[in-house]
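Quarterly update from the structural biology core.
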Amino acid sequence: MTGLEKILSQIQQESDDRCREIEENAKEQAEKIIEKAKERANELLSERKAASDKKAELTVESAQSSAQLTQNRALLSEKLEIIDDMLARSLEVIKALPKKEYYEILKELIYKNARQGEGELRLSKEDTAKLPSNFIDSVNNSLKNSEIKLGKSTNIDSGFILVYGDIDVNCSFDAIASEKKDELRDTLNNLLFN
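Predicted structure, tokenized:
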């Protein structure tokens, strides 16, 4: 080999060595970049999985909360239906009381709702027909600063209406139950469900 060939061979060898070194460095850097990309992809995947898990957890909690709310509403509706049924039955029991007890309840209501002056007692047709003969006198004997007289029958189921001029005091059992419905519901709810 001549001197020139040796120089060219040495240059070729150094060039090949340098190319191999550059290639190895490039491979190392590529592997590092790929490893970092994999790490970042795994981080992103973990973050997305955590976010997805959290979203799924919130969805389940929301569904459970919604189901509980629906159940509570259904239970409340059922309780109110039971209470309203009890109120209706209570009114039926009052209406079905023996005559003496029924008219004693009416007397107590008259005493509580009578106003000063002269009033007119209006009963249902059925209650007017069954009215004990001494009922009005008995009521008036117990009233102070007030007097009532029996008026014409009115279109109510039970109870009465007291009329003082332009003022009507509705003491029908249905009106009383309606007026006191929320209070009665609370009382029955405590008795039945607590």
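The two ends are 112 Å apart (CA to CA).
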